[in-house]
Amino acid sequence: MKQSSVEVGVGIFVLIGIICVGYLTLRLGELELLKKDYYQLTARFRSVSGLKVGAQVEIAGVQVGQVDAITLDNENMEARVRLNIKNDIRLGDDVIASVKTAGLIGDKYIKLSPGGSENMLKPGDVITDTESALDIEELISRYAFGSVK
Predict the structure, then answer these.
(1) Which among 44, 50, 55 is positioned nearest to 109, based on CA atoms?
(2) Is the dihedral of CA 26, 31, 34, 38 positive or negative?
(3) pLDDT tens digits, residue range 52-91?
(4) Among the ranges 24-38, 46-60, 129-143, which has the highest mean pLDDT value?
(5) What DSSP line would sit under 78-115, residue for residue?
(6) What 8-state DSSP symbol labels residue 24?
(7) What is the pLDDT of residues 58-69, one digit of tens each?
(8) How far apart, in Å, are the Cα atoms of 8 and each of 2, 14, 69, 73?
């Protein structure tokens, strides 16, 4: 009788531990099962080299969303980046989306620079003003071969 109560206690303890590890995995990985707190916008770029799905979207250094998907538009040969933006953030139709580099490691993120327009973007709209990532290798090769102006 005493042996089985010890085994049940250990089983309950292990089950609680597994639940805690699962919860911490979801929280630390910033995984969201229900994405109801976000709306989606799309931005078109000539180049998004180095940008990854899950990268941060920031306004004034504050995270307001993340990159949901990166695809290629076969018609225009442009990168289409789908952004998840927090519902409480309203952006005008003159917002500028830029691919920026964070720190020395070179992690890429999207910086949004809001404008002064009264017309707000709706879920599913396209950000038309974008700035692609600065390609350091291309600049170095231009400098090395004398075509920098």
Answers:
(1) 55
(2) positive
(3) 998 999 999 899 999 999 999 888 889 999 999 998 888 9
(4) 46-60
(5) EEEEEEEEETT---BTT-EEEEEEETTTTEEEEEEE--
(6) H
(7) 999 899 999 999
(8) 10, 10, 46, 57
Half-sphere exposure of 130 (CA within 13 A, CB side): 20
Return the bridge partners of 127, or none: 43
In this structure, are residues 130 and 44 in contact, taking their beta carbons and an 8 Å threshold?
A: yes
Helix (H, G, I), strand (E, B) or coil at 16: helix
0.85 surpassed by pTM: no
Residue at 18: amino acid letter: I
Query: How many residues appear in the chain?
Result: 149
Q: Which two tokens stand for residue 125?
A: 């709209």
**Rounded to 5 degrees, what are φ and ψ at 142?**
-65, -40
What is the structure's pLDDT at 36?
Answer: 66
Amino acid type, 96: I
Q: Which residue is associated with the tokens 């231009």?
A: 142
Tokens coding 136:
């350091």
Residue with tokens 């225009």: 76
